[in-house]
Amino acid sequence: MSEQKRLYRSSDDRMIAGVCAGLAEYMNVDPVLVRLAMVLFTLAGGSGIIIYVIAWIIMPERPEELPNV
Fold first, then answer.
1. Spatial distance between the Cα atoms of 46 and 53, rounded to a whole number of angstroms
2. 63 in any annotated domain
């Protein structure tokens, strides 16, 4: 049986809280692309900061016993 894919904040590849790295891990893309998108959203009106903070609050941190994908 396949394991269900879950969204977690990254505990390994974090810059601030691991939100962008966690999203990148979930979507199987490079974390730099997600970080760049957040910077662009921030520069285009400040919504990137709001999205980041909300994701920081909502997303749980990856438990220690789970392996990185």
1. 12
2. no
pTM assigned to the model: 0.78
Q: Which domain holds residue 42?
A: 19-58
Determine the residue type at 64. Answer: E
Phi, psi of 61 (to 5 degrees): -80, 145
Number of domains the chain contains: 1
- Please report, in angstroms and rounded to a whole number, the separation of the first and last CA atoms in the chain: 17
Alpha-carbon distances, residue 34 vs 21, 30, 40, 60 (angstroms): 8, 7, 10, 18
Q: How far apart are CA 2 and CA 48, in angstroms?
A: 34
pLDDT tens for 40-66 read: 989 998 888 888 899 999 998 888 776
Residue 60: phi and psi, rounded to 5, are: -75, 155
Decide if 35 is inside a domain: yes
